[in-house]
Design a protein that fits this description.
This protein has 56 residues and is an all-alpha fold. Helix content is 91%, strand content 0%. The chain is built from one helix and no strands.
């Protein structure tokens, strides 16, 4: 699936029309927090796995 600059622009305009200019920063903030929590969870899993291997 190849997205060119035209398709990205169209998608951005549709999102702007659906959510409005004031709602987009809130959505991006929530998305950023979600990504941060996901990365922290992945790091915890990695740490636990390393500790289990060390104990063996």
């Amino acid at each position: 699936m190849n997205l060119g600059p035209t398709e990205i622009l169209i998608i951005a305009l549709v999102v702007l029309l659906l959510f409005g200019g004031k709602k987009i920063p809130e959505l991006m903030k929530g998305l950023g927090k979600g990504v941060k929590n996901f990365k922290e969870g992945m790091n915890e899993v990695t740490d636990v796995t390393k500790e289990e291997k060390k104990d063996e």
